[in-house]
Fold this sequence. Notes:
single chain; 464 residues; Jelly Rolls
Amino acid sequence: xxxxxxxxxxxxxxxxxxxxxxxxxxxxxxxxxxxxxxxxxxxxxxxxxxxxxxxxxxxxxxxxxxxxxxxxxxxxxxxxxxxxxxxxxxxxxxxxxxxxxxxxxxxxxxxxxxxxxxxxxxxxxxxxxxxxxxxxxxxxxxxxxxxxxxxxxxxxxxxxxxxxxxxxxxxxxxxxxxxxxxxxxxxxxxxxxxxxxxxxxxxxxxxxxxxxxxxxxxxxxxxxxxxxxxxxxxxxxxxxxxxxxxxxxxxxxxxxxxxxxxxxxxxxxxxxxxxxxxxxxxxxxxxxxxxxxxxxxxxxxxxxxxxxxxxxxxxxxxxxxxxxxxxxxxxxxxxxxxxxxxxxxxxxxxxxxxxxxxxxxxxxxxxxxxxxxxxxxxxxxxxxxxxxxxxxxxxxxxxxxxxxxxxxxxxxxxxxxxxxxxxxxxxxxxxxxxxxxxxxxxxxxxxxxxxxxxxxxxxxxxxx
Length: 464
């Protein structure tokens, strides 16, 4: 195409002949045939492409699917060249020819020189716009990420508070049980029981410890009433305290009769109090142990989730990462949502950036929970598909509209309000998966919306 041909293109309206000639001199006219790939998404946008003739589709990969974002079918439509004003500029889509035709290809560095020499203010303006857009994007992502971090921290504090409060209450009650134990021992010593009697009551206590009563709440309440009546008939003080502990431990009237036969009438009350306080102390110690174990498990889950004590690239168990993410999001899972875990035993550990993958799982699980609106089934699964480790996050929500599915992986696209979400959109999730040479896609199956992530199960692929 010559100078006269460029004048007929609307893009160049108002440009002088010297400017158009400079473009022709700086550029190269590239002819193409149907199926030719002219430029590829995510590669450096180091050339400015102007359509002169023909048709070119602008394509982008979303998981395994190829989506057409637009088309260049009118002379003057252009793409790329971003590195003329942004050193990090990359093609947003791939350009594949649909018909034969021709494009003008101008190197970005040459385009910058033309701007700088002929319209330096324009270059400064477009650089400022590009820089501002990148800064605002970064700030928005950081603010959303901080808000999401605050939500996770609040949820973790809530999860830690329950076992911590339980342990505190148990320790306080343990002090009372300890004092009661000392008091009952003093009373037993005062009535001068012999070694055989103490051995007998201790044997009966240990017998209760081995019992595992499978009684329902109503049955326990009935037995408690029976024991309380028996204790009252024998003038045992505080029967309302002793009876519940004995009933919960599996004691019945027959067991109490054996205690009476062993200890005699005078030492019956202190003996039963000693057994009651011993059982209470044992139960409280078990409660402290369970509470502190729960706290320890939460701390371990946080360490696994954050990966702060591990190398960035490491051998990663996908099921472990998913489990730690579920623990971190436990406060977000409503009572009406059932979590179904389907972890394939055949899935091997993979080389990955574990902390980044955990962020992906956080985003996908949070989106699934939001989609269900408080009730449904969340399915988290892993399986091996030939050389791929496959992770699926599925929900039984209402599904996605075709428009939402089409744009789900677009930068800045969201269906959530301001301040909601994790600050990690599907676009960034896709980039993380891409860094692992993997794929992420959306499948709408009967009754389920499935986000499927496929990761190479072989040697290290991350960090390209």
